[in-house]
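seq as requested:
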Amino acid sequence: MRVLVTGGAGYIGSVTTAMLLGAGHDVTVLDDLSTGHRDAVPDRARFVEADVRAAGDVLARERFDAVMHFAARSLVGDSVADPADYWHTNVGGTTALLDAVRAHGVGRFVFSSTAAVYGDPAAIPIRETSETRPTNPYGASKLAVDHMIGSYATAYGLAAVSLRYFNVAGAHAGLGERHARETHLIPLVLEVARGLREHIVIHGTDWDTPDGTCIRDYIHIADLARAHLLALDAAVPGRHEVCNLGNGTGFSVREVVDTARQVTGHPIPSREGPRRAGDPAVLVAAAEHAAEFLGWRPELPDLAGIIADAWAFHSAPGTPADTAPGER
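struct tokens:
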């Protein structure tokens, strides 16, 4: 297939692009490099530096079979501080993209959504039928896009799949996670191991969990990217399918830190801090529907393996792990 990947210079988008190319697809990446990195785009992919709202110009030049949509703002805290940016980019940008998809006859659409649409869930594990009640503008903007995609599929025959997941980590094919301002636990822990910060802060140790720290579902980036390729093939015209992705079991903050100590051989000092407002105690996704509809199951669920792959990426000589967005 000929596929347009928006946000393909980012962490998840770049790994998925590499897998698409490896599977024989023809790929064009569109990214404004506001958070992505030019050197993360695989050499065999064509690259267009532009805002997602300019996707119509790309789609007008040649026939595309599918769009994979990763371009988005994705920091919870920033979405609370500056919600306008999230509504304009995530919702406004996707509206423009979907209109371009419709105008140029693109038949398939795969959306990188988020389990943040569920907010603080009433039951664990979280299923696609769970109530959606996002607690921040980021989750709300992604839920709005999911609703939008569903309406386009029903009205215009679009074959669409939204994939919802929580924490992604690890590395694949020399591509890994690097942000100018890191907020995710595993790369933050590895920054301590690399000597870039003195300690990791554990936010809350009195949660109703076995060791008192929050539990989260982690998924390997290779498993996540593979799910996007499966969704591309599974999409059905006139139907919008939603699939949760996860390992089905969670790992606590202490488990992540302890495992990172074992993997890196670094003591990784930690300090206990107060709970963060809005943090649920446990977030774990049920992925039975993904198994049924996509034929997807995590192949790399081991936490030590996920962290080891991330550590190999960040500690490799010459890895551009700390460049600012757009650089290199």
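The first helix runs from residue 11 to 22.
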